[in-house]
# Entry
Amino acid sequence: MEMTNVTIMTNIIRIINGFVFPLSEKNLLLGEDNDASRREQYAKVIIYGIVWGFGGNYELKDRKIIHQLLLEKGYPVPKKGRENETVFDFFL
# Structure
């Protein structure tokens, strides 16, 4: 299924907003009380949003390619627990 750039970006923003907005309503922040922890936690939310907003419609073989690309680029991808796991198998 082909998606337009607008649809992809809308999906990404909605996913990220789904995590961040409820926290902001309560004046809460992700992570511990230090900037490094917060950056790491927000980076995970952003990567999660991008992965699912962009790659959610891809087949399993293509998801593996996306996972490998994220690893090669140095993005904070969770470590695999099993052989065939990809970033799509993890949740926040």
